[in-house]
Write a structure and sequence with these properties.
The longest helix has 26 residues. This protein starts with a helix and ends with a helix. 43% of the residues lie in helices and 18% in strands. The chain has four domains: 51 residues, no CATH class; 227 residues, no CATH class; 114 residues, no CATH class; 58 residues, Orthogonal Bundle (Arc Repressor Mutant, subunit A), CATH 1.10.10.410. The chain has an eight-stranded mixed β-sheet. The protein has a two-stranded antiparallel ribbon with strand order 4-5. Strands 11-12 form a two-stranded parallel sheet. The radius of gyration is 30 Å and the shape is globular. It is of the alpha+beta class.
Length: 510
């Protein structure tokens, strides 16, 4: 027992030292008080992590994707996002008396389109998210069904209004088995499915417009014991919120059970503003859905080369093999080709593909520049995406076109400007004034100084202003050289070639 106790003591001493150092940086004289708070937070986090590790979480998903269609499933009403309430509703959609069917939702309960499938998805893990692992979730079934109307609650007038624009819109429901154990895994699976649906043209799968909505079933149990009571978190319309909702629900259930409480079989909603789930209604009673066959709908026959139908209406028969031949590359194949073709990191291929339009932007830039693809990826994923997120824009809304970025990278690659100068130019381009990188370089005088004599004069001036650093270097402390190079760069506003500056300084110092 002595060794583990000593090890824990050493761990806490190390944490305390780190907390004291951090607190001193942030709080000055109040460091001891702040360090105590930091230690308490670290201790609580470590205890929580240790406690959570003794529980296993189970996550299953039900995903509703709006199918790409100009009209609803069984009526000629249009499908259009953000149309005025009740402007796209037929008598059939509203289930008015005299229409058939009257007042029920049509779904494929007994004969879904597909059963017993799988979805492979990948996660970036490791300290720098540079390791990719692939996991698989089973798909119980895929079925078609109608969407329902939308309730709009007016708290001011204490009334509820109904918008039937969505009623009857075609949905594809994908039911996933409880094979996942965290919000991160669930979000990765949903993103992969979203990309597949968009690639195939089955659904636009725009979560912000409600074209892809997710219900998450979550439960926790002790490893080796039966699954616990599950809760369902309904209608989540963001992969990021899905991850947060699931992880919150896992923690909530663990805390409830650790404190002697019980988990209720209930439906909950996710409050994204407060980052928590809230109870909506219990599900203790058996759901009575009253399924019945719809006699007006003919069967849809799916077949492959091994199961050709003997007869049937051509509009009712779907040849799977023929469809398979026309399929485009799926996201996993696209990522593999990106890595193989351009030599980029696997984790970067995920970002390029996950952000709508980013891969096309990247490949357009590549065609117009001779810069190494990995460097181009760096500029796009670090600098471009940084600006996009800061201004809350998509790549398609960027004021910098692929041709302008390629022009900037060509200036950098040809040695006309330095990397710091290129970042200055990029910042100017983001102002959206329509100036080209070449014009900005000319106006701001950012071209590299190529005159060696001019650089020698600047280096001598910097050495004269930093005699202590010069003395340190002469004593053998070569690390200080970087400081002198930085001062030269500062004086030239990033217009000096660092390698040439180092060569000149070494010569002058010798």
């Amino acid at each position: 027992m002595a060794a583990p106790v000593l090890r824990r003591c050493r761990d806490w001493l190390r944490i305390r030292k780190l907390c004291l150092r951090k607190a001193a940086e942030l709080h000055g004289r109040q460091a001891p008080v702040a360090a105590s708070a930091l230690c308490r937070e670290a201790r609580e986090a470590a205890t929580r992590k240790s406690r959570d590790a003794s529980w296993a979480a189970v996550v299953g998903l039900e995903i509703h994707a709006q199918i790409c269609s100009n009209s609803k499933l069984f009526s000629r009403s249009q499908v259009q996002f953000a149309a005025p309430p009740n402007s796209l509703v037929s008598f059939f959609d509203a289930s008015l008396p005299g229409t058939l069917p009257t007042g029920y939702q049509i779904t494929q309960q007994r004969l879904p389109i597909a059963v017993n499938g799988t979805l492979s998805y990948s996660l970036c893990v490791g300290k720098n998210q540079n390791e990719v692992i692939t996991k698989t979730v089973r798909i119980k079934q895929i079925q078609l069904e109608q969407d329902s109307g939308k309730s709009l609650h007016d708290d001011l007038r204490s009334q509820t209004l109904i918008d039937l624009n969505r009623a009857g819109v075609g949905l594809m429901e994908v039911v996933m088995e409880p094979d996942m154990c965290s919000g991160e895994e669930a979000a990765a699976a949903v993103r992969e499915l979203q990309l597949i649906l968009q690639t195939l043209g089955s659904s636009q799968a725009n979560m912000a417009e409600g074209q892809l909505r997710v219900d998450a079933n979550v439960s926790v149990h002790r490893p080796g014991q039966p699954y616990g009571v599950r809760t369902e978190v309904k209608n989540i319309n963001s992969a990021r919120f899905l991850a947060k909702a699931i992880d919150y629900e896992i923690r909530r259930q663990i805390e409830e059970l650790e404190n002697g409480g019980t988990v209720l079989n209930e439906t909950r909603t996710f409050d994204f503003k407060h980052g928590c789930t809230i109870a909506m209604r219990d599900k203790e009673g058996k759901q009575d859905y009253r399924f019945m066959p719809e006699p007006n709908l003919p069967p849809l026959i799916l077949h492959d080369a091994k199961s050709l139908p003997a007869h049937g209406n051509s509009q009712q028969v779907v040849d799977i093999d023929r469809l398979r031949e026309t399929l485009p590359d799926l996201p996993s194949a696209k990522r593999a080709k990106l890595v193989e073709r351009y030599g980029i990191q696997p984790q970067h291929s995920f970002t390029l593909l996950n952000e709508d339009g980013l891969m096309e932007f990247f490949e357009t830039v590549l065609k117009a520049t001779e810069m190494n693809p990995r460097k181009v990826v760096g500029w796009i994923l670090t600098d471009m995406l940084g600006y996009l997120k800061k201004h809350n824009l998509t790549i398609k809304e960027s004021p910098i076109s692929p041709s302008l970025l390629a022009e900037l990278l060509n200036l950098l690659g040809s040695g006309r400007i330095s990397s710091p100068a290129a970042k200055q130019v990029l910042e100017e381009m983001w102002k959206g004034e329509g100036k080209t990188p070449t014009l900005i370089v000319k106006e701001k005088e950012l071209e590299l100084i190529r005159d060696r004599n001019e650089l020698e004069h600047i280096c001598q001036a910097v050495m004269g202003d930093h005699q202590n650093e010069v003395a340190e270097i002469k004593k053998g402390n070569q690390k200080v050289m970087n400081k002198l190079i930085g001062q030269v760069q500062k004086k030239t506003r990033g217009r000096a070639d660092p390698a040439l500056v180092k060569e000149i300084l070494e010569k002058l110092l010798s």
